[in-house]
Amino acid sequence: MVRDGLLDIQIAVRVHPSGKLDLYHEKIGVFTDERGDYVTFNGSPNESENGWVHNAESFSLHRSWGPEFEHARNERGLFLETWEGRRPGVELFALDDSVTGALFDRFPPVDPDEAAREGVRSFTITPVSPSYDLGLRYPEFLEEHGLREYQESCIDDWFADCRGTFALATGVGKTVIGLAAARRFAEERAAAAESTLVLVVVPTTDLADQWRRNAQSFGFPTLVCNSTVRDWRQRLELALSALQGSIPRTQCVVVTADTLTGEKWSPIARTIDVSGFDLVVIGDEMHSLGTKRRLEGLPARDGANVGRMGLSATPRRHNDEEGTQALLDYFGDVLVRIDIAQAITLGALCPYVYEPVVVRLTHDEQDEFDRLSREIGKAWQSSSGDTERFYRLAGPLLTQRVGLQSHAENKTVRGLDLTLAGRTQGYQLLYTGEGVHPITRVSQIDYLVEGLRSEGMSANKFIYLTDADQRNMSLQMFRRGDLDVLVAMKCLDEGIDIPEARRGVILASTQNPRQFVQRRGRLLRTAPGKSHASLVDVLCLPSREPDRNSAAYLAERSLVARELTRALELAEAATNGKYAPPEALTEIMAAYDLMELVADYGENATWVPGA
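^ thats the sequence. predicted structure below, dont judge the formating
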């Protein structure tokens, strides 16, 4: 282009009145079409390594035909003034024959028509084997001993195909496994001169913030994308653009599932799917991603330069086998399972004592419970075995019945007493039911917080409606020991690290295995000075003794069986339930003729598919 007069080059130097020379560091340019319209740029599009890796670079564009035409005209005038040598303090030097001669000797000019006839010719510089340092590292807590042996094994198993799901008990280090694998992936790809995007998808903003802190401790440049970050889209677009530069980089992006399925993410998704950089997708609490919309929001890219990892204590979606299978199809089959009992044996979690406490419905609650059960029975008969139709008809009734058990008056009163009894232990979590009592309309969480405070204990609510800053403040107070009890409703289940917790009281009644597994996991994380944990589980049963001759007995027995199934799984990994269930549970099983439930007791039954 220089030989044919298609490109002119001049060298500009800043000259001071004293004669001192400095760099002419301005970046300004003009593009003009045949009609005379032009676009100017002015800023810092620095293509050097220093610009891409260390600096913050940006530039602005202005059109001669847009509302910014005044800026475009001024910038064009500045460019012409400089190019034509009329700029005070700037000297221009043309390329002389010695420079162009050396250039042509190194890279002889090629006639385009001749090159087309003879085939493409290239001129290469002797390659130098690059060594790229992405700045990744292990955090301080791993520097002394490194990863645990089972964590290393998980990562090695995943690298066989860079696909797979880990069904790991809460507290064994799923985040560490994910980030350590992502680090190894990014460093191996950097050695091949490729950049890597690590995309972590999480269900909540609290979990997103936790991943951000952990990723940064590994040295990853990290960006959180959710409703709490005002300018996340602009920052993400710049980060993705940087990944497509000539120098290998890595970027960790933590996005909430709601943001992933929002309108603002759509153009980002297209960029990720067609980009040239490599990709690792980590689905934390992956069971939350099994809805059709969220599955469709996950990156569709596939191939050798794409890794996928699913993380969850319970990969199976409750009552959704189709969604569960879709998740396993996307992330890969379960590679490793570590349940609570194994995690305790490995030293990853602390031992715990399980204390089931039985309370009864009041007579008024029993009457309402029976009425709801009759209506649910009618819905089942009219559905003729069609499960979907049954849940459409009976869904609200089932919710009311669960609410009745969760908010039972005796359960609420006993929960307060049990929490007060743990005053000397401190660091207590108290899980309550959602909403209010369906008959009395009393809010269980308000009753408990007021009751604890009236007895001189410090207690704060931890609910999803609470401002994020308030929730974080409560967590910090709890960790410091300045707060006796965190009273949670529909929170403190997934992902939040509070290893200081010593004792948990569970009042909320649920048949979803994921919830009780997560809640148990909150208590079992290890911490300095913490030798064990205790879990108090308040079970609510009918007010009357079972009548095996009544028409309602079979339905009632089925409900009790589901409650006991959950309780037995909590019991079998506990130190006091290792060889036999606690006495309170065996009494219930005997009353309802349910002793067969202990047939597999002690074999660490799991909720993971295929186990």
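The longest helix spans residues 363-383.
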